[in-house]
Protein backbone atom coordinates (compact mmCIF):
# COMPACT_ATOMS: atom_id res chain seq x y z
CA UNK A 1 0.00 0.00 0.00
CA UNK A 2 2.74 2.46 -0.90
CA UNK A 3 0.16 4.71 -2.50
CA UNK A 4 -1.36 5.27 0.95
CA UNK A 5 1.54 7.51 1.92
CA UNK A 6 0.51 9.94 -0.80
CA UNK A 7 -3.25 9.83 -0.16
CA UNK A 8 -3.42 11.05 3.44
CA UNK A 9 -4.65 14.62 2.98
CA UNK A 10 -5.16 16.22 6.37
CA UNK A 11 -5.34 19.70 4.82
CA UNK A 12 -8.72 19.04 3.23
CA UNK A 13 -10.08 17.86 6.58
CA UNK A 14 -8.77 21.02 8.26
CA UNK A 15 -10.36 23.21 5.57
CA UNK A 16 -13.71 21.37 5.79
CA UNK A 17 -13.82 21.73 9.57
CA UNK A 18 -12.82 25.41 9.44
CA UNK A 19 -15.50 26.15 6.86
CA UNK A 20 -18.14 24.21 8.85
CA UNK A 21 -17.42 26.52 11.76
CA UNK A 22 -17.40 29.55 9.41
CA UNK A 23 -13.95 30.62 10.63
CA UNK A 24 -11.30 32.50 8.71
CA UNK A 25 -7.69 31.39 8.52
CA UNK A 26 -6.83 34.45 10.62
CA UNK A 27 -9.14 33.33 13.44
CA UNK A 28 -7.69 29.79 13.43
CA UNK A 29 -4.18 31.25 13.34
CA UNK A 30 -4.96 33.42 16.36
CA UNK A 31 -6.43 30.52 18.31
CA UNK A 32 -3.65 28.09 17.43
CA UNK A 33 -0.65 30.39 17.55
CA UNK A 34 0.34 29.29 14.03
CA UNK A 35 0.76 31.64 11.08
CA UNK A 36 -1.86 32.25 8.38
CA UNK A 37 0.63 31.35 5.60
CA UNK A 38 1.47 28.03 7.30
CA UNK A 39 -2.21 27.16 7.79
CA UNK A 40 -2.88 28.03 4.15
CA UNK A 41 -0.05 25.71 3.09
CA UNK A 42 -1.49 22.93 5.26
CA UNK A 43 -4.98 23.36 3.79
CA UNK A 44 -3.54 23.34 0.26
CA UNK A 45 -1.42 20.23 0.93
CA UNK A 46 1.84 22.13 0.47
CA UNK A 47 2.89 21.56 4.10
CA UNK A 48 2.30 18.63 6.41
CA UNK A 49 1.93 19.66 10.06
CA UNK A 50 3.77 17.97 12.89
CA UNK A 51 1.57 16.17 15.41
CA UNK A 52 2.02 19.07 17.84
CA UNK A 53 0.93 21.62 15.20
CA UNK A 54 -2.01 19.43 14.19
CA UNK A 55 -3.11 19.25 17.84
CA UNK A 56 -2.95 23.05 18.06
CA UNK A 57 -5.06 23.37 14.90
CA UNK A 58 -7.51 20.77 16.23
CA UNK A 59 -7.86 22.66 19.53
CA UNK A 60 -8.52 25.87 17.58
CA UNK A 61 -11.22 24.04 15.60
CA UNK A 62 -12.83 22.42 18.65
CA UNK A 63 -11.90 18.88 17.66
CA UNK A 64 -9.00 16.44 18.06
CA UNK A 65 -6.02 15.61 15.88
CA UNK A 66 -7.29 12.02 15.74
CA UNK A 67 -10.62 13.18 14.30
CA UNK A 68 -8.91 15.39 11.72
CA UNK A 69 -6.69 12.49 10.64
CA UNK A 70 -9.65 10.14 10.44
CA UNK A 71 -11.67 12.66 8.41
CA UNK A 72 -8.71 13.07 6.05
CA UNK A 73 -8.62 9.41 5.22
CA UNK A 74 -11.22 7.36 3.39
CA UNK A 75 -12.35 4.35 5.40
CA UNK A 76 -11.44 0.92 4.06
CA UNK A 77 -13.26 -2.24 5.05
CA UNK A 78 -9.95 -4.12 5.15
CA UNK A 79 -6.59 -2.38 5.54
CA UNK A 80 -3.26 -3.92 6.53
CA UNK A 81 -0.58 -1.76 8.10
CA UNK A 82 2.75 -3.56 7.86
CA UNK A 83 5.46 -3.19 10.48
CA UNK A 84 7.77 -1.56 7.94
CA UNK A 85 5.14 0.84 6.57
CA UNK A 86 6.29 4.36 7.32
CA UNK A 87 2.81 5.71 7.90
CA UNK A 88 3.66 8.10 10.68
CA UNK A 89 2.77 11.66 11.40
CA UNK A 90 5.11 14.37 10.19
CA UNK A 91 7.73 15.76 12.53
CA UNK A 92 8.65 12.41 14.00
CA UNK A 93 12.00 10.71 13.95
CA UNK A 94 12.77 6.98 13.98
CA UNK A 95 13.19 7.35 17.77
CA UNK A 96 10.07 9.50 18.33
CA UNK A 97 6.96 9.19 16.19
CA UNK A 98 3.27 8.37 16.10
CA UNK A 99 1.98 5.73 13.71
CA UNK A 100 -1.68 5.38 12.79
CA UNK A 101 -2.55 1.66 12.90
CA UNK A 102 -6.21 2.00 11.89
CA UNK A 103 -6.53 4.35 8.98
CA UNK A 104 -9.74 6.02 7.97
CA UNK A 105 -12.93 7.17 9.65
CA UNK A 106 -13.78 4.12 11.78
CA UNK A 107 -15.30 3.52 15.19
CA UNK A 108 -11.86 2.82 16.68
CA UNK A 109 -8.69 4.86 16.45
CA UNK A 110 -5.42 3.07 17.15
CA UNK A 111 -2.02 4.74 17.37
CA UNK A 112 1.45 3.50 18.24
CA UNK A 113 3.59 6.11 20.02
CA UNK A 114 7.33 5.48 19.96
CA UNK A 115 9.52 7.59 22.24
CA UNK A 116 8.13 10.71 23.83
CA UNK A 117 5.54 13.23 22.68
CA UNK A 118 4.30 16.60 23.93
CA UNK A 119 4.11 15.65 27.60
CA UNK A 120 2.56 18.95 28.64
CA UNK A 121 -0.51 18.39 26.49
CA UNK A 122 -3.67 17.41 28.32
CA UNK A 123 -6.16 15.11 26.59
CA UNK A 124 -9.87 14.65 27.14
CA UNK A 125 -11.67 12.35 24.75
CA UNK A 126 -15.40 12.03 24.44
CA UNK A 127 -15.29 8.22 24.57
CA UNK A 128 -13.31 5.45 26.24
CA UNK A 129 -9.61 4.85 25.65
CA UNK A 130 -7.10 2.11 26.45
CA UNK A 131 -3.34 2.60 26.74
CA UNK A 132 -1.10 -0.47 26.53
CA UNK A 133 2.67 -0.23 27.10
CA UNK A 134 4.43 -2.37 24.50
CA UNK A 135 7.91 -1.46 25.73
CA UNK A 136 9.72 0.89 28.08
CA UNK A 137 7.74 2.86 30.64
CA UNK A 138 5.36 5.82 30.85
CA UNK A 139 3.70 7.90 33.53
CA UNK A 140 0.05 8.91 33.18
CA UNK A 141 -1.69 11.60 35.22
CA UNK A 142 -5.45 11.17 35.47
CA UNK A 143 -7.97 12.47 38.00
CA UNK A 144 -5.24 13.86 40.25
CA UNK A 145 -3.22 10.64 40.45
CA UNK A 146 -0.04 9.51 38.76
CA UNK A 147 0.16 5.99 37.36
CA UNK A 148 3.51 4.44 36.42
CA UNK A 149 3.14 1.84 33.69
CA UNK A 150 5.77 -0.58 32.44
CA UNK A 151 5.97 -3.11 29.65
CA UNK A 152 2.74 -5.15 29.51
CA UNK A 153 0.74 -2.75 31.71
CA UNK A 154 -2.47 -1.14 30.50
CA UNK A 155 -4.63 1.75 31.64
CA UNK A 156 -8.30 2.20 30.81
CA UNK A 157 -9.81 5.69 30.78
CA UNK A 158 -13.54 6.32 30.70
CA UNK A 159 -14.64 8.99 28.24
CA UNK A 160 -14.35 12.53 29.57
CA UNK A 161 -11.40 11.87 31.91
CA UNK A 162 -8.72 14.54 31.55
CA UNK A 163 -5.24 13.05 31.35
CA UNK A 164 -1.68 13.58 30.20
CA UNK A 165 1.20 11.20 29.80
CA UNK A 166 4.92 11.10 29.20
CA UNK A 167 7.56 8.52 28.44
CA UNK A 168 9.88 7.76 31.36
CA UNK A 169 12.18 5.51 29.34
CA UNK A 170 13.86 6.23 26.01
CA UNK A 171 12.53 2.99 24.49
CA UNK A 172 8.87 3.70 25.32
CA UNK A 173 6.29 2.24 22.91
CA UNK A 174 2.62 2.78 23.71
CA UNK A 175 -0.45 1.52 21.90
CA UNK A 176 -3.51 3.77 22.30
CA UNK A 177 -6.92 2.42 21.32
CA UNK A 178 -9.81 4.90 21.49
CA UNK A 179 -13.45 4.85 20.50
CA UNK A 180 -13.95 7.56 17.86
CA UNK A 181 -15.24 10.91 19.06
CA UNK A 182 -17.93 10.75 16.37
CA UNK A 183 -19.48 7.73 18.16
CA UNK A 184 -22.11 8.70 20.72
CA UNK A 185 -22.06 6.55 23.85
CA UNK A 186 -25.47 5.61 25.26
CA UNK A 187 -26.58 3.39 28.12
CA UNK A 188 -26.28 -0.25 27.16
CA UNK A 189 -24.28 0.25 24.00
CA UNK A 190 -23.06 2.49 21.22
CA UNK A 191 -24.56 3.89 18.00
TrEMBL record:
Which terms are listed as keywords in the entry?
A: DNA-binding
The reply on keyword S-adenosyl-L-methionine is no
Presence of the UniProt keyword ATP-binding in the record? no
> Where does the HTH cro/C1-type domain lie?
14-68
Q: Which domain of life is it from?
A: Bacteria
One Pfam entry name: Cupin_2
Matching PANTHER family: HTH-TYPE TRANSCRIPTIONAL REGULATOR (PTHR46797), METHYLPHOSPHONATE SYNTHASE (PTHR46797:SF1)
Protein name per its UniProtKB record: HTH cro/C1-type domain-containing protein
